[in-house]
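Researcher: Re-running this chain for the archive, since the previous output was lost when a drive failed. Same request as before.
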Amino acid sequence: MIWMKIAVRTLGCKVNQVESDALVGMLAALNPEVVEPGAAADLVVINTCSVTATAEATARKEIRRARRANPEAFVVVTGCYAELAPEQIATLGADAVVPNRSKAELPRVILEHFGLPADPITTPPNEFWGAGERGLYTDRVRAFIKIQDGCNAGCAYCIIPRVRGRERHREWRSVLEEAETLAAAGYKELVLTGVRLGSYAGHPRGVAGLLSELAAVGVPLRLSSIEPEDTGPELLEIIGRHAPHIRPHLHLSLQTGSERLLELMGRRYDTSHYRKLVSSAHELIPGFALTTDVIAGLPTETGGEHRATLTFLREVHPSRVHVFTYTPRPGTRAARLPQVPRAERKRRTRELIALAAELAEARVRPLLGRRTTVLVERVRSGVAYGHTPDYYEAELRGEGLTAGQEVEVVVEAAEGYTLRARPARPVDLKA
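Model: Regenerated structure tokens:
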């Protein structure tokens, strides 16, 4: 029987992670042992991101590192950067470059390289929807389920439509089947993800209808990032009705608090809509937590518009803000607009990061001394790590903690975005 060591390095979004997991499942014919990136391997797959220039630089570094660490391995590069720059990637040491539009070819390319035939599961067309096709090769506590791919929005600063293509939606019964498979395999939380999750049209009632179907599976559910314009009252009501089984957390991308820039960048909401959405979520979802992301120094952004973003963040008060410095993406409309000087973009980034820390500290202060639950995802050197239902990172110490337990804890301290906690009662070793 073939026995092969494979290393998979996944960069960027959770959609890439789902696709990497699915690929490993499709390579069962190799009888693979999955090893950490950088370890000795016969096959190295690098699933790249290209959302920023920094992401592309990271991809190049990982390709060079993979070749140095495994000079005899078959190195395959795929993902969004492979879609944008296949010729450049080929010069960095990759043996095969498979862009996103041909990602369904990955299993066949790999199996044929090792002299093995493809089969109906590894032969296109497929959308890398999930990891259930060949069984599960991961010990993760949390599983991601991809329900949608591509984007039709065409925001001025974004290259995602170019590298991911038009929107495609997974039929809801297929999602339900995978969720049931993952639940039976022992996963403790399922996360729905997609390039533009809220546009999902594989169920007559969209994401809200899909969540209603999945609630019966019996495993806690979470949504990854969702666009404000795609988030309506029905979705909020369903989350609230099933909270905390459907986790009471939403990541609603803001990008800027400037009305003019939202319109210029092609965003399909305004601050009034965002404000009302957050207010409704707090009313309808017990224990609701908001996280978001903003971009510092969008093209033509004035100092006043930057300050408007700071003011708006204080108003909606997310528990966490992911701050990105704008970098022009070639081929986008925003790249052709007048640019904020790089030094000023960096300065505005620092201001946003400082505010994000201030807001986070204010959010965690009332949690000190309170009880919540933590889903333990991993245990290292006697310390357990996981997330609360409202998606705070948590560290806890206690006897008998193992991955997969959901433990009631008392919050004792906080550092940045991380809660320090202890079990509220002795841990049930049979759990």
